[in-house]
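Exercise 3.2. Students should predict the tertiary structure of the chain below and write it as structure tokens, then compare their answer with the key that follows.

Predict this chain's 3D structure.
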Amino acid sequence: MRRPNQKFLSCLSNLAIVIIAILFLNQCTPSIPKTKGNPHTSVNSSHLDSLYEERKVEGREVGIVHIYSAYPDYHWVGDNDEGIACVDDASRAAIFYLREYQRTSFKADLHKATMLLNFLMTMQAKNGYFYNFIWPDGSINKTGITSQAVPIWWSWRTLWCFGETIDILGIKNKTAKQVLQHRDLLLQAILHEKSLFSTKTDTAAGFTIPMWLPNDGATDQSAIMILGLSAAFKQNVYKDNQGKRDSIKWLINHLADGIMMLQVEAPGNFYDGAFLSWQNLWHAYGNVQSYALLSAGQILNDPHMQAHAFYEINTFYPAVYERGYMDSFWIRSKKGKTSAYDLKTVPQIAYGIRPMVFACMKAYDITGDTKYKVRAEQLASWFSGKNIAHTPMYNPSDGIGFDGLSGPGQINRNSGAESTIEALLTMQSLEQITTKK
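Answer key:
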């Protein structure tokens, strides 16, 4: 039998090395999910998927999203005072995965959404509200100031998420039925919150403050509540309880009235049309007032609500874009004249951009006017590098969204849950806009 020559053996050896290398890379490199029929999607959940983990909380198998991941290798990082994962992030991540499942029918997205919903339901306290954080051992942080089961941000975000769940999965879905029971408990707590039904006002820097809004005048929190309440009203699951249905509708209108009270009317000033976030403060993060008013106005057939939202979108949003975005400012009103003070341009984060894109998306959906599509794309260009740092803040090739920027060339390259989710929700909404018409 003839021996193979040395050159042939060398070729085989090199080929084996190449094959092994390819197999190794296929195992180690996270896959980049592509939307069916659109191989060029900018929605890449690879990094968010890497923050996702399944574990037991209170004896129940759930999905969580780790709150922080550190540059350059993006390993998980927790917080010694708060924990490793929270309802705040899980609720928004569940919305993202639910919307992805709706867009793509990928079963993996539905699975993650379902497991995250299990986490949310596990975090509900007996009073109807939600604890926020869990510790590394899976136990619930029930005492931390950012984790207590009280009427605040994380309970409102869960209300919003539950509404989206029932919308997308349908009331006959097993998970949606469980969600509905937990939402009922939350709604019961909200509808017994006497402060929300008051008409008390106060003043701050010349503005009349609607003290019935959460946290004595928080329009940002109120807007998220409106999203969840509007979904509950639209889904008509309380058709046999007209009193409850009427109370939900009344509260939507009452919260909206408070939000509209804190819209600035100051023609000729950059802040004209802005909804103040809390009392006489405006901040970029979480300002979903216009999106909420457009959504509720559509459900309740209320053009007055929508007119206020269009005022901000048409007047204030262009000013935000032209000024290179902003972080926050305060407004004072004296003898009918307004002025801004303590204006801060930075830091800038994804959570300050996504709410505006959502509102423009909704405006386009309602009107069909392409100017809102263009405005959404302009505002979202912050992610692709049209910002003061001239640096992309989201990379569609790996799904990493940076945690923020604090000045030219000053980028926080960590990529935690909130920044990642907010970037993905933005990209997702833009693709919905792009493919709508």
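Discussion points: The longest helix spans residues 6-28. The first strand starts at residue 52 and ends at 57.
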